[in-house]
Amino acid sequence: MQKIHKPVLKREIIKYLEPKTNENFIDCTAGGGGHSLLLLKKIKPEGKVLAIEFDPFLAKRLKAIKKENLIVTNDSYRNLEKIIEKKDFKPVNGVLLDIGISSWHLEESKRGFSFQKEEELDMRYNPKIQDLTAKNIINKYPKEDLIGILKDYGEEKFAKKISRKIIKKRREKEIKTTKDLIEVIKKAVPSFYINKKIHFATRTFQALRIEVNRELSNLKKVLPQTIKITKPGGRVAVISFHSLEDRIVKNFFKNNNKVEVLTKKPIQTSKKEIRENPRSRSAKLRVIKIK
Fold this sequence. Notes:
Elements: H1 10-17, E1 24-27, H2 34-43, E2 48-53, H3 56-63, E3 70-74, H4 80-87, E4 94-98, H5 103-107, H6 134-140, H7 143-154, H8 159-172, H9 178-188, H10 191-194, H11 202-213, H12 215-229, E5 235-240, H13 243-254, E6 259-261, E7 267-268, H14 271-276, E8 284-290
Parallel strand pairs: 1-2, 1-4, 2-3, 4-5
Antiparallel strand pairs: 5-8, 6-8, 7-8
């Protein structure tokens, strides 16, 4: 049975983006289409949603919905301005970026995003056009590069120990699957770390995913574009799921004199939403209004 992806902070997105009849919105990370369809309901009959989805499987599934005024494109949001030009999508009243990994990728993609399943170490959002995989990184990157990735993208305090253990193991045998990698990490970190509430492989997996998909550089590239393409009075909302992303968004919004920051502190999920969707617990929403 196919699991339904639950879009996070639905009520808050509607409150802060203020979608009105016949306005146009862009969902830069459409995923399962939850936020796109939510916005579409608020802007009918003439309003349109441009749903951008980098994963070809999810984009194809979204296109199959065949919803009037839902325009789906399989592309990366880093190309936002080019996409708008190609689709002639104007004016833009608001933009949404939900930069968390979707439930589908963790549970159904079979690409090694989750440490709870044994799968090949892939982690690409678009295998059709991306060459670099998590397996390439683990088996080919020099030790210093591995340490840097785990430190910078995973904020992993045992980055050196894990990297040393990875280098040692890959000399004996290629590290191919999530299970192979988890066993290496387990042998590298102290026992107290293994028994913590957060799984001991969480930070390593996050770091690899960010490196494979260039997530932080894509975010830095798209943020200025969202301001350029949104009309004055329009809004841009960004949902992030870890401190690295949130810091980029916060600093960009704060240091831009073309916007008014509507969320002095990030909006977080309610206890009720966390109970219904535990993965939403780390979501942080920041919103700006274009001057």
